[in-house]
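User: Is it possible to get a 3D structure for a protein together with its bound compound? The compound here is flavin-adenine dinucleotide. I've pasted both below.
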Amino acid sequence: MSNLKVDVCVVGAGPSGTLLAYLLAKKELSVLLIEKSEKIGKFFRGEHVNEDGEEILKKHHLFDGVEQLGLLRMKHIEYWHNGEIFKAIDPDPSIGHLSIHVPQANLLTAILKEAQKLSNFHLLLNTTVSDLVQDKSGRYVAVKTKHGEEVQMVEANLIIGADGRYSTIRKKAELDSMTRKHGFDLLWARIPAPANWSPSIKNASIDDLQLAVYSQANNFIQIGWNIKEGSYPTLHRQPISPFIDKLIEAFPELEETVRNNIQSWHDFVLLDVFSSISEEWGKEGLLCIGDAVHTMTPTGGYGLNCALKDADVLADLLHKENIADVDFTDFITERKKEAKKLLASQIEMEQTFLENFAVLS
Ligand SMILES: Cc1cc2nc3c(=O)[nH]c(=O)nc-3n(C[C@H](O)[C@H](O)[C@H](O)COP(=O)(O)OP(=O)(O)OC[C@H]3O[C@@H](n4cnc5c(N)ncnc54)[C@H](O)[C@@H]3O)c2cc1C
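Assistant: Yes, that's possible. Here is the predicted structure of the complex:
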């Protein structure tokens, strides 16, 4: 087993870990970013950047790089009933758009392109962090990694757990996590957009549940369909055609692309929807950020943006001189307050979704 030593070891190359690793490397700390997947950027992950996320990307001069790789600005949020639009929310004219669809691979590639210009930044892909190491005083001082059969130890003055909703770092450090179910799960499908489809988020209500169609960069649309929590095992034993018919009834313009591209339940991906919040975010030598300590549901598209904000605020706090003994109390208090506010707002949006359709009844 060989050993590496860095100032900061960031576990997880999602939005929070990648941005933080880059910002710290820019401050001349030696940073190792470790990602278990073979390549970065996944489909069906947080892809809508809101005004907070946009501001962070612009603040760090990353937005233009992302735009060069491809993004799409939303022009309307629409509410549909029986195949017709009955309400639309337009952007503030001074801004000109609502959220921005940014394929996660484009976001991460643009940040990594800048990071990889720095000699003190290192990325390990296809490498899983499996355990933490403590010194005699109980301080976390290293992580154990696995790359195939090769086991390695990475020593660090600070370990960041940015490893998402099922965080290994959070579990190994025995940080708490309170999970909440929201009464629904989600089916996602990504299919080509019909010709001349305007960049928008379209909502409809079906069987009192939400159906949404999001425009995506590169001429795709993403369909997100709320189904009752735990209902998928029963649902997917039934024929899919009544389900498809409902989708087409809600959005008739989608008929051709839906019939061409969705033939079976395998064309959907199931998301087990839950949210979680941790009271404790760190221990001596270790801190968790992003979904690892505040998983959000997809409602309102907050998770990615909140994860980017964690990285942005944290990077402002850390320097080469304080990395081994920084006090995270104020950071945790401030960011937890914000995460709890967003989680509460998601619940309110989920509970009041049907009120958007009240004018019809
Ligand atoms: C279907 C869906 C749609 C969403 N839509 C939106 C949206 O439109 N807008 C929005 O703001 N948010 C959205 N979110 C939420 C958003 O995806 C997350 O909040 C955001 O990705 C969190 O970023 P993160 O960096 O904290 O974690 P993640 O993006 O989960 O990244 C964690 C990374 O850590 C890696 N990892 C995990 N364990 C290990 C390990 N042991 N060793 C090494 N690497 C490891 C993972 O492979 C992953 O790459 C959505 C979420 C889902 C599930």
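The pocket of flavin-adenine dinucleotide is lined by residues 11-17, 34-37, 44-48, 128-129, 162-165, 168, 188, 271, 290-291, 296, 298, 301-305, 307 (CB under 6 Å). The longest helix spans residues 329-352.
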